[in-house]
Amino acid sequence: MILGRELEKKNILPVLNLCEKKGVKVDYMPKAKMQILCGAVVHQGYAAELADYKYLTEPDLLQLIGNTARPLILILDQIQDTHNLGAIIRTAEGVNLTALVMAEKGGAEINATVAKTSAGAIFHCPIHRTADLFVFLEKLKATGLKIVGTVMGRQNTIYQADLRTGLAVIVGSEGKGIRKNILGHCDEQVSIPMWGRIDSLNVSVSTAVILYEIIRQRLADRLI
Q: What average pLDDT does this structure show over 162-179?
């Protein structure tokens, strides 16, 4: 653990106590030097080197789905911006998502920016990376989950759709949305209604809107 020398001790006491409890060595460094070490990430005077992120394996994910009454899986189809990914993971953890799934290629990877933007949620939200999203969707269907794709301009909105059952919700990339071959796996397509002059929301915002509508419907039916 590296801490900025300029930090006031009273502000870092909780961190120091936790490091002592966990047996983590603490070093001090000027913030300017830390910036060189951390790169473009805004470190705020705190930095730590972590082991590689451990993704949820496919067998463990399928077992988790089987052991959950109404699974809620979020599938990211080529989300490329690390800030969007971090914000999405933060919301996903906030609604106690069963798991988040993304492809190994074509999208952002878990890195320091994602970890910071997620406010640490990556360490609490199960995440699986699949080599073939197309094939994986078939496996999800076999578990009985309904596959729902989010697409702009559909007459069927999230407020009309029944989102109370076990779901796998697909969110597409920032520019192109869900790819056509992936969209073909969807049992239902839904949109977020827009009444202004802008026709879409930022992907992390739209994901939050969708996830909380799912929670709202389940709460209304006392399914949570």
A: 93
What is the pLDDT averaged over residues 9-38? 88
DSSP states of 141-197: HHTTPEEEEE-TT-SSBTTTS---SSEEEEEEBTTTBS-HHHHTT-SEEEB----SS
To which H or E segment does residue 209 belong?
helix 203-220
In terms of residue numbers, what domain contains 32?
2-47
Q: Do 199 and 148 belong together in one domain? A: yes
Q: Is residue 53 part of a domain?
A: no
Dihedral angle, C-alpha 19, 21, 50, 129, nearest 10 °: -140
Three-state secondary structure call for residue 47? strand
Residue 52 forms part of a structural domain: no
Instruction: Decide: 210 and 192 in contact? Cβ < 8 Å.
Output: yes
CA distance 181 to 2: 46
b vs e for 39-53, b when ≥16 Cβ sit within 10 Å of the residue's Cβ?
A: eebebebebeeeeee
